[in-house]
Amino acid sequence: MTPSGSKASRETSPSAMLPLRLAGMDVPLSVLRADTLPALLDAVITMVVALPGCGSVCIEMTASGDREAAAGRIAIPLVGGQVLSFDCEGDSGALQEALMQPLEIVRLRMTRLQRVEQLQASVVAAERHEQLQRALYAIANLADANLDLHDMLARVHAICGGLTYAENLLIVMADGESGVMRVLYYADSVSPNSLHEGQLLAFSEFPNSLTLALLRKGEPLLGSSLELRKRLGLVVDS
Asked: Minimal CA–CA distance to 156: which of 138, 129, 132?
């Protein structure tokens, strides 16, 4: 979407206008051909900024979809809480009347494109859900496979790599009573020999451990090591 408060000062060429006249003004071909919401909103800004006496054009989101315009400025609600606003040095009444029908087309196009975006998001979500289900089934099937612990966790690692970036992976089993973590699986492309499977790690020896902090928090987190350390209140590695 066009960022809140964005402004345009572009000019339109005659070739960008469709020879279709509504309420005494031309409707840009770019408005009718826009196939994404950002492209459509950009075309609307270009259409308005090209009108005589119009300046400082922006499309922004408001809480109510409308607002009181400042003196000499027109604010026209569009769709979904977005408002088209611009300065007007001429006859504001005549200009709003001229824009009435073109902006109806814009609202229809916005509604249609929003529905397309929602449908696309639904498809992506459904595909992601199916991918996760396949991964869970694959992990569950490993329980019946005749594999040792390392091979089974290596396959879990591969399955995780099919869902997200997972080149490096550490799996531990923690014992809160004894304050010890046991390394079950370790893969690190940078420091492959820093840990080894079966190694015991005392909580007290790793007060700045990201793994230990995640275990204590008890919920999944997503982000870079730096971001997670800041969120968990850990010392940032130098």
From this structure: 138
Comparing CA positions, the residue from 140, 203, 135, 197 lying closest to residue 166 is: 135
Task: Count other C-beta atoms under 10 Å from residue 206's C-beta.
Answer: 13
- Closest-CA residue to 46 (of 32, 62, 30, 33): 30
Listed in order, strand segments (DSSP E) in the chain are 17-22, 25-28, 54-61, 73-77, 82-88, 169-175, 180-187, 200-202
Give the C-alpha separation, 87 to 82, whole Å: 17
Contact 65, 77 (CB under 8 A): yes
Nearest alpha-carbon partner for 106 in 8, 192, 40: 40
0.85 exceeded by pTM: no
Calpha distance 11→49 (Å, rounded): 7
Q: Tell me the DSSP string of 152-169.
A: HHHHHHHHHHTTS--SSE
* Average pLDDT estimate for 197-202: 94
Q: In whole angstroms, what is the distance from residue 57 CA to residue 46 CA?
A: 9
